[in-house]
Design brief:
Distance between the termini: 26 Å
Strand content: 25-35%
Mean pLDDT: 91
Structural class: alpha/beta
CATH architecture: 3-Layer(aba) Sandwich
Number of strands: 7
Helix content: 25-40%
Order of helices and strands: HEEEEEHEHE
Low-confidence stretches: none
Number of domains: 1
Largest sheet: 5 strands, mixed
CATH topology: Trna Endonuclease, Chain: A, domain 1
Length: 145
C-alpha cells in the first residue's frame, strides 16, 4: 500500500466518513430494533472486519450491515448491506462503483429471502457514470460532492 501523505489523508477522510455515518446508522438501528455491525471487535465473529460469505463461498468485507435479531454474541439476518467510499479524483470512481456492486450484489442474491437493502454513501469526486451505474442496479446512493 502506498505511504504517500495524500494516501494517508484519504484514509483519514474515509474513516471520518465511516465514523460520521456510524452514529446515524446506530441511532436508526436502535429505533428499528436492529443490530448495526461495523468494523471492530464483536464476539459473534472472528477478527475486526465485517465479512459476509456469498453462496459461492466468497467472503466480502463491508462497512455496515444491519441485522434483524443480531446481537453482540449472535449474527442476525441481514436486512441492509451498506458501503461507503471517498474519492479525491474521478479517475477510479467507476472502478470503485464496480467494486462495491461486486461485494454487495452476490450477498443480496445469497440472502434474497430477506430482501436486503443495498446502500452506498459516496463522498468526494465520483463521475455521473459511476453513480448512474449503482442506481441502475437499484442501489440507494447518498452522494456528497
Amino acid at each position: 500500500m502506498a505511504k504517500s501523505p495524500s494516501h494517508k489523508w484519504g484514509q483519514i477522510l474515509g474513516e471520518f466518513l465511516e465514523d460520521s455515518f456510524s452514529k446515524k446508522l446506530k441511532t436508526f438501528a436502535n429505533k428499528q430494533k436492529l443490530y448495526l455491525d461495523t468494523q471492530g471487535i464483536r464476539k459473534a465473529r472472528k477478527g475486526k472486519k465485517v465479512s459476509w460469505t456469498d453462496s459461492f463461498g466468497n467472503a466480502h468485507d463491508l462497512d455496515y450491515v444491519l441485522e434483524r435479531n443480531g446481537t453482540e454474541n449472535k449474527i442476525g439476518l441481514p436486512v441492509a448491506f451498506i458501503e461507503s467510499a471517498w474519492r479525491r479524483y474521478t479517475k477510479h470512481s467507476r472502478n470503485k462503483a464496480q467494486e462495491i456492486q461486486g461485494a454487495i450484489l452476490p450477498l443480496v442474491i445469497t440472502h434474497k429471502n430477506y430482501a436486503p437493502f443495498k446502500g452506498v454513501i459516496l463522498a468526494g469526486e465520483f463521475t455521473q457514470g459511476a453513480i448512474t451505474q449503482l442506481k441502475s442496479l437499484e442501489f440507494e446512493v447518498l452522494y456528497f460532492s
